[in-house]
Specification:
Blueprint: E1 3-6, E2 9-10, H1 13-19, E3 23-27, E4 31-32, E5 41-43, H2 48-60, H3 64-77, H4 82-92
């Protein structure tokens, strides 16, 4: 699980790096050279470090196999219809 913190500009290779991460938390002053959809959560710049730490703390105490299973499911269902995604989710669980 890769959690990325952005506090500033993310353009060109920066946007490519953002797109490869699992979770992206950015400050409300961050700027991206793409119209949207890249970040998981936006927080005030003053809260950025604390929010990333809170997220990482939750993740690092989880089972690696459960995180892997969740990521695999996410990528399997991404292009499915809502009905198909729910069906796949119930099969996985």
């Amino acid at each position: 699980m890769i959690v990325l913190k952005v506090n500033g500009f993310a353009t060109a290779a920066g946007c490519q790096l953002v797109a490869t991460c699992d979770m992206i938390v950015c400050s409300d002053t961050s700027k991206f050279s793409t119209p949207g959809g890249l970040v998981t959560k936006v927080v005030p710049a003053t809260d950025l470090d604390a929010e990333v730490e809170k997220i990482v703390d939750k993740i690092k105490h989880k089972s690696r196999s459960v995180i892997t299973l969740g990521k695999q499911f996410f990528y399997k269902q991404i292009d499915l219809s809502l009905f198909e995604a729910y069906k796949l989710g119930s099969d996985v669980m």
